[in-house]
Structures are given as structure tokens and as C-alpha cells.
Design brief:
Length: 357
Amino acid sequence: MAQVTLTNVKKVYFGGVEAVKGVSFDIPDGGFCVLVGPSGCGKSTLLRMVAGLETISSGEVTIGNRVVNQIGPAERDIAMVFQNYALYPHMSVYDNMAYGLRNLGTPKDEIDARVKEAARILAIEALLERRPKQLSGGQRQRVAMGRAIVRKPQVFLFDEPLSNLDAKLRVQMRVEIKKLQRALGVTAIYVTHDQVEAMTLSDKLVVMNGGQVEQIGLPAEVYKKPASKFVATFIGSPPMNILPGTIDGPGIVALGEAILEARDLREDLAAGSPVEVGLRPEDIEIASEGEAGSLPFDVEFIEELGATQLFHGKLAGLPFVMQAATDAISAQAGRLWITVNPDRVHVFDVQTGGRLG
Ligand code: ATP
């Protein structure tokens, strides 16, 4: 069993920087957990504490049934894949992959079998005699993965493993990592600041901000019901529109003159209270001109994305973006009338940024 559990884990660096401020969650055996958040939010520090590369200031990390706080990285039964691959330049691909096993005193035949098996899985059998400098970025990344696989660890740890690859290769490797993790059934923790990677890879998404967890959930849950304005604007691309509004009555918010229905809005909010209203660009629907309940959107310019278009302009006088399929509307600047499904209207507290509905 390789469930990973973090209980009130904190990290205070020398000099007093509180990088991780008491984080608790668990990853079931075979789960894929992605830690996502902006630069400096503490995600690498958290991963490095699980890896044993950083001491834990307080709290507890458990891998399987063992508390590992005092256990060195080599004894934790984990394998880590880094952003810079960390391959030995003077060694062949084969030796890079065999290195860790040789250090553990694994018999030669078994090393050979494991390296060849990993090379087959990763389709790098033809590269085993090459040196890292004779490889492309994607091939190097595969070797780094191969080095992790041969160890047959209980947990894979990934620290932004794709950030040095070009956009196309990133997408390809992302799919390969997910397939590989599924096939091997290994528990994985993956750090990234890329929200697309986070959404597509995870079955448990942990959004971090300022050393704390903002939200934990299935990626679709986090997308549909972001717990805060921070999460709402961090997850989703293009980012959610945030507009100042007021409570107009039960389940109703006002944006200037216009009003919008919002499902599951908290009922204890006084009419007239200021709020922030979040509308995702992809949740906007086109209405017919002047239709009851529709809002006027003045389109200023249009960006062509191929399958869809981004309409930039002003809603109730404020900057606003809508995403729509190319053939849904004749693309031109001017006034459009829009509506939003009440399930897709997000409302946040002005002071705390917390979700109100
Ligand atoms: P990035 O995406 O930029 O790598 P991150 O979310 O992984 O960011 P961390 O590297 O975990 O963030 O850093 C969290 C905080 O801890 C930052 O404020 C950083 O400056 C600080 N920090 C990181 N390493 C150290 C260190 N060795 N000594 C002191 N402060 C550190």
C-alpha cells in the first residue's frame, strides 16, 4: 500500500520564511495528485518534504504505513523526476537508468531486465547506448522517467517535469505520463504551475496559494465550484471574468442596470451588499436582441482561435471576454445580447474572496 498522508505539514525556512503553513490531505494508493499554484506558493517545498530533500518543520508525512519524517530520501521508496532531468552527462542512457539499481546492489541480470523493460515501455530501446547530449529534450525526459520506473517505487514525485519542452511535446508527454502512471498503478504527486496540466493529469487537484491549500477536489469540481475568487481565476483559460455587483434579492445579483440569476446563492446576504460576480468566457450564451434577462455586451475586437473565437469588449461598461464557437454568430464588433445559465454564475465575497454561491 502506498497511500501518502500529510498531516498539518509546515515548513519554516532558515530566516523565518513560512513556505508551507500547515497543509493536510491524503492521496489514495494509485492516485494522481497535482499540486498547482503560482510561483512561490510552496508547492515545490511540499513535494521536497515528501521526497525527504527538505526537513519538515512540524507535522507528519506518511508513505504507506510509515511516518517518514526521520527517514532519508533513499529509504522512502520514492522516485523523483525533475524539470532539468538531472541526467549524468558522461554516462550512456543505459547506465543512467541502471545507476540507482547498481547503488542498491541489485543483481546484474535483474538490472538488465528492468532497464530493458523500462526502455520498451518508453520506446527508447534504440537510444540505450547514447549520451544525454545526443538526445532531444523529449527523449531526455523519457530517460529521466525510465530512471524512475526501473526503481519500481511506491510513489512517483514529479517537479514540473515538462516545463523545458516545447508546447507540442508537452501535450504528448503529458498523455504519456498519465498512461504510464495508470499502467504501473503507482501513486503520483506532480507539481506544476500550468493549470491545463493540473486539470488533465489529476484525479485529486490541490490548489495552493501563499503556503496554504485553497481547495482540494476532483478537477471538474474545482472548475465548476471554485471555493474562492483566487481558484476561480487561476483554474480555467481564458480566465474567469470578475465583475463588481450587488445582491439584488434572493438568488439575484445586479451588474449595474442588469440583473442575473445565481443558483445556490447564500440566503443570508442583505440586498444591496457588494459582491464580485464571476462569469467564465466559455459559459456565455448568445440571446436574441433585447431578450428578457439578457445583458448587452459591446464587442470591441475578436481573436480567432480556430475552433472558437474570443470576443473582447465591455459588459455593463467593464472589460469582458466571451468565448464562442466560430459558426455560432457572425463575427463582428458591435452589440451582442448574452445570457448565462444560473448554475454558471459564481458569486464571491468582496473582502475574503470566498464563494457565496
Ligand atoms: P515555483 O513555481 O516558482 O518553483 P513554488 O510554489 O514551488 O514556486 P517554493 O519553491 O516551494 O514555491 O517556495 C515557497 C517559498 O519559500 C518562496 O517564498 C521561496 O522564496 C521560499 N523558499 C524556497 N526555498 C527557500 C530556501 N532554501 N530558503 C529560504 N526560503 C526559501
